[in-house]
Amino acid sequence: MTLRVAFLGYRFMGTAHANALARLPMFFPDAPETRRQVLIGRDESALTEAADRLGFAETATGWREVVDEVDVFYDLAPNYLHADPAIAALDADAHVLCEKPLAHTLDDAERMAAAAADSDATAAVAFNYRFLPAVARAKYLVETGELGEIRAFRGRYLQDWLADPTAPWSWRTDADLAGSGALGDLGAHTLDLARYLVGDVARVSGYTRTFVDERPDPEGDGTQPVTVDDAFTAQLAFENGATGTVEASRVAPGRKNDHRIELDGTDGALRWSLERPNELLVRRAGARGFERELVTDPDDPYVDHWWPPGHVLGWEHSVVHENAEFLTAAVAGESHDPDFQAGLAVQRLLDAIQRADANGRWIEC
Amino acid sequence: MTLRVAFLGYRFMGTAHANALARLPMFFPDAPETRRQVLIGRDESALTEAADRLGFAETATGWREVVDEVDVFYDLAPNYLHADPAIAALDADAHVLCEKPLAHTLDDAERMAAAAADSDATAAVAFNYRFLPAVARAKYLVETGELGEIRAFRGRYLQDWLADPTAPWSWRTDADLAGSGALGDLGAHTLDLARYLVGDVARVSGYTRTFVDERPDPEGDGTQPVTVDDAFTAQLAFENGATGTVEASRVAPGRKNDHRIELDGTDGALRWSLERPNELLVRRAGARGFERELVTDPDDPYVDHWWPPGHVLGWEHSVVHENAEFLTAAVAGESHDPDFQAGLAVQRLLDAIQRADANGRWIEC
Amino acid sequence: MTLRVAFLGYRFMGTAHANALARLPMFFPDAPETRRQVLIGRDESALTEAADRLGFAETATGWREVVDEVDVFYDLAPNYLHADPAIAALDADAHVLCEKPLAHTLDDAERMAAAAADSDATAAVAFNYRFLPAVARAKYLVETGELGEIRAFRGRYLQDWLADPTAPWSWRTDADLAGSGALGDLGAHTLDLARYLVGDVARVSGYTRTFVDERPDPEGDGTQPVTVDDAFTAQLAFENGATGTVEASRVAPGRKNDHRIELDGTDGALRWSLERPNELLVRRAGARGFERELVTDPDDPYVDHWWPPGHVLGWEHSVVHENAEFLTAAVAGESHDPDFQAGLAVQRLLDAIQRADANGRWIEC
Amino acid sequence: MTLRVAFLGYRFMGTAHANALARLPMFFPDAPETRRQVLIGRDESALTEAADRLGFAETATGWREVVDEVDVFYDLAPNYLHADPAIAALDADAHVLCEKPLAHTLDDAERMAAAAADSDATAAVAFNYRFLPAVARAKYLVETGELGEIRAFRGRYLQDWLADPTAPWSWRTDADLAGSGALGDLGAHTLDLARYLVGDVARVSGYTRTFVDERPDPEGDGTQPVTVDDAFTAQLAFENGATGTVEASRVAPGRKNDHRIELDGTDGALRWSLERPNELLVRRAGARGFERELVTDPDDPYVDHWWPPGHVLGWEHSVVHENAEFLTAAVAGESHDPDFQAGLAVQRLLDAIQRADANGRWIEC
After folding, report:
1. Chain A residues within 8 A of D293 when measuring between CB atoms
2. What residue stretch is flagged as signal peptide (chains A, B, C, D) (predicted)?
3. Domains of chain A: total
4. Which of A254, B31, B53, D106 is most deeply buried (CB count within 10 A of its CB)?
């Protein structure tokens, strides 16, 4: 059976997921077959061009009529457009992959998680960095006890595309459309990895800052107010006793996509950065320092699908692997990890960090 | 017009080029359209599986009958199978992309270059690293004079897959099939970049070594003799007066695909490694040290076809870009750079290094 | 005039400061002349050996009788022995250099700062990292506006010497003797650099953890309770609006002395680590990435006293520079920066972080 | 007994060795006691200032009258002034430490080695990098077989202080005074480490280049010809079958003191750079990649004399350790490693590289 797929959204992540679907037959021949059936958007001419380029058979300008006609629904729209389409798709028993963060409000995220729980379909939230070989290997090293008990997590995600105060306003800088700024856009990834690699968070402290409070209107002469954070910091207290610090910024000069994760355990430690996604620094028990692993060996996660050792993968491969996992789970009637519950758990942390900031105190999660 | 394409060979580089062709429509929509028509190999069952996976319409067990039926011929076979098929294809006016090194002997390379000169078709040799954004940017910085006059080139290409003496014999360890070992397999890339970035080489000195002189026969119980080098070193004297050192090894523990290039100029300097292919270290005129550029900005070579800044590309993208350039040149009736003359120039250096080693003296090129 | 100097304490920092005094004549000939007059300690035989090795003319087993007899008093004793000796020395008009943190309690620190304010002598707290060339250069770049307005500070100080649960109890793991653990031992340095490079802190949030709650008694068979933190994290809100995160650990496997500082500004950014103390990573306005500066040029701070470019300095040079500055200020009747007020300011942050942790809320500073 | 010491030369290396002698009592209390007795130079006023600063009791403007009056003679003069003073000192039974390279001609080096062989005194050549903890540890790892049999050596030593064509002429750019340029100044260190870590060299190939052939006369308005190399490259064939490449430049922009050494063995590999002298990258048998060791642990060579782990040492400590070893050997009547034979062996390589260049062929050593 070939799965009929619809995408809501066709820009950056639309291309990334279309590319993933296009590559599965050659590199993951055991993954389910898919047909890119319907591409959904509002601007008809852009939509037509995108559908042609991304290999979709049809276009539609509304999502409501589509959810009943496809087997799989990808919600790649701005955050405020996550809940209703995703819930409708799940209600129609379509499998759903939703971009992160799960929603722009905690209420929406809860509604989505409830809909997922009520549906037989598979619901996935797109925390794609879990599917990079080096991150998957980090998880393996934690699970197999190489590091011992985890005592500290450090995560930060730094970009600089908003460092220029003349960078234009977009939905990503608007609270009503995005929910939050660096927090939900970047921090959601980091918080997911914190939960994935360490476990549940008991309490958080937060601080958010908006440095540039208005930006040029992309469709006019004036400016629009920026109503989300440019940067945030947070402390985490994990349930297992580990400490955590998390930080993100879209105004950090010289950082293009610097998502760094560090773990300290009783026996060992790990370090990783998205700017060098194939490298994992591992301090093993009894070793003097960190060993640089190039995670491109045939027995590393996902690597046997690709190239010989040392022929490094790129960012986009995380999305290919994510799609292979999601579609395989969907066809098998299984849940995908991370699912909407995982998305909700991160949303609760996003919300708690904002409340902790607003109240000047730690918030129980 | 859709170009009908045949591949001779379907393993590592077969997959890499099939992937490249499959990705062009989405990411390089202006590149010529292609149809993967015929996959050529000897083992019928493996061939059928590969054709299915790589998206080829047909298979064939001999190349002679295919060259007349396609527009483009990819020679991805072991080195000793480069000359005759490529020449036949060119004689049939098929465009040819041939894997590196151009041939297993200098004689073959000369015949191939002559055939290319006599043909109206486009002949390309697959020095794919030229097409990584960071390497293309290095070329740009040299061409625009950022570094001043080049005084020194350092290149080394280190791998460790033959460090284990029980790694099996293959065509890559046999002089009759491969021509040379680390020299032609890895050094050919480095020597091409030396010529690309610095210019013609006037003289070479060489040294080659075989550390493991027999390896297990993959098809039997015994061993086969290793008749190629495991490692080589060379000095270059460029025509412009620059010094050069080039080195490669397939027995360098801990190096997976460590192809490093350094350039010193009168005003600046460059450093690059294939294990971090998206990074270029640039020492600009007047600066104190090297600046790390993540070559993922929209105006960097090829990058606007892909993702936002910081979303790094992998090894395989070099092959995608190479194919876009080659096919575009082919349809336009233009030559591709690097062409068979460039492949021949490198082959002459490979041959000169071997003769320099054999004779214990510098050889004029 | 030759300054007569007394040291209270003769272990690690005693050796470091004795070395500094011994090196000034050759490398800082303009610095005041000193005589190592009295070495103070309790264990007479160890004291005699140390005085001989460190070049002291005399020994004493109590500090009270010494403070009137010397011109300069170095308090290098455990934290609980900072206040009384330092105050007595200042009251006797001896110049005082006190190791960090200034005291083991905020009360003591306040008494010390008051004594310093009442004394004509120079009082210095030993935040020696300010005097590394790379850190001094970082300060220069901030002051001259190269980075623009500072928006973010990240500091962490990681060591692993207590990762082993059998590492023995010492005064450094006892709250009555040390005041705090990683917080005061390591975090004090980081917080001083935060104030030095960014400015005053308005509010803090804190979290402290003790992972190993008892350790072998070094003088017996049993164990002693650990009453200080093994690790802490904190968020800072600077008065100028910048965000800050600070973290320290003595149980971070693989980190020997990894004190990292990062600054983001509106125009540029900085990165530095104590494990590579001579290197400063600078992202300049308009640049693509970080430039690695080896801060060993003749016009870099302090460097002209030493070696040609590239002949790197070590950790101990920070202490030599600190002593040159302190003694020069003392003889000139000027204050040293950082003085006891700066030490008190850091102590207030240490105290605030502990209270923030205890109360689960941000504390105004 | 206190050894009376004379220095010929008081600039860079004069300061480095005076510093070493001054530090031994505190950090190497078991090393022999020394008195800085006579400082020898030609410019009386500079000499008097230097003697005062460096702690010498007397000065002299000629070396002949001094060699009989001291126990130890340090030849820190320009290369052409190595042979006669060192030989005279050895003939007078004074122990000699001579800066590298041993001489400016092979003849002189041979005379020096003969004099050392005939003398009961200890003769040392100052290849100080052997005495950095990380390099000494590299030697240990080789000796204990951690790397297996060595198959490849890579060394390069890059600086940029002559990249500026207006950098003045000095004895270091004159063949009559220095013998060679980057080759003897920098390459001598690298070649010594090659012999130290791998073993004897059977054959060499060489290439030398002078890019700037005249430089401003520091004492006049005109220029002086540059008669030494700005850069060289060489290939080595070791007697044990290993390959080697060696390269040095004083015109490599952005490199301040970048002396890099790499070793590949059958089982493991090493990497080290002088710009990060405390770090050793080790690829152990069976490991995936290189582990970064911070060579500051108490059981690392020389480290127990200094600071706790992670408190890094600088360049100058190599000279302190070298002096401790040399003086200890001298008093014990033992030879120092490296001795004049080792200096001569390197001089033969320098000479062979020049002849290999001149003759365009490999030279047996």
Report:
1. 288-289
2. none
3. 2
4. A254
